[in-house]
UniProtKB/TrEMBL annotation:
GO terms for cellular component: plasma membrane. Residues 1-18 form the signal peptide. This is L-ascorbate oxidase-like protein. Residues 29-141, 156-199 form the Plastocyanin-like domain. Gene3D superfamilies: Cupredoxins - blue copper proteins. Belongs to the multicopper oxidase family. The keyword Membrane does not apply. GO terms for molecular function: copper ion binding; oxidoreductase activity. It comes from Hibiscus syriacus. Keywords: Signal.
Length: 212
């Protein structure tokens, strides 16, 4: 009887995994010309946007991302901070993935198992992330599972990082020559350069917390 009960529990657990919901994304990775620091330059966009769209899921969801490479060089997309259990070939790094050739596509599929929090994705080849191609990942908790802090009013994904006005190809050439890049030309917040006016992203009267 105990053995039958164990088998029943194991079968039920397997069925639960099979029933975990799916979310689907379609990423078209291409070049656009924009001026994050006031100087027109080539950046890498996803679906025409820089930074790329928020990849939003809930813990234990299955995530499917179809990545179309519209660049003129090979591409891999990696999911920083996401544990890819038993499917490291979805990690999007050289050695575990074959590159996506220009005008080709590849569909990544992975489960955000037991994950809650903020992460980000970016291209892992040829220093491409220095030209963009990145975006936030938000993994929400199940509503039936309590979180160890007060329920927030809202979540806002803010990407902050150094930025150069030269594209990744020029920067990679400098590094390959043995030289240093030097100080960045500026800092971007959500893909934007310095603001003329000091305005906050959070309306007055709402408590907020910054998580690094």
């Amino acid at each position: 009887m105990a053995l039958l009960l164990w088998l029943y529990i194991a079968l039920f657990s397997t069925l639960c995994l099979a029933d975990d919901p799916y979310v689907f994304y379609d990423f078209k990775v291409s070049y656009i010309t924009t001026s994050p620091l006031g100087v027109p330059q080539q950046v890498i966009a996803i679906n025409g946007a820089f930074p790329g769209p928020v990849l939003n899921a809930t813990t234990n969801y299955n995530v499917v991302v179809n990545v179309h490479n519209q660049l003129n060089e090979n591409l891999l997309m990696t999911w920083s901070g996401i544990q890819l259990r038993r499917n490291s070939w979805q990690d999007g790094v050289r050695g575990t993935n074959c590159p996506i050739h220009p005008k080709m596509n590849f569909t990544y599929q992975f489960q955000v198992k037991d994950k809650i929090g903020s992460f980000f994705y970016f291209p892992s080849l040829n220093f491409q992330r220095a030209s963009g191609g990145f975006g936030p990942i938000v993994i929400n908790n199940w509503k039936i599972i309590a979180i160890p802090f007060p329920e927030p009013n809202d979540d806002i994904a803010v990407l902050i990082g150094d930025w150069y006005t030269n594209n990744h190809t020029a920067l990679r050439t400098v590094l390959d020559s043995g030289e240093e890049l030097g100080l960045p030309d500026g800092v971007l917040i959500k893909g934007k350069g310095p603001y003329r006016y000091n305005k906050t992203l959070i309306p007055d009267g709402i408590e907020y917390e910054t998580i690094n």
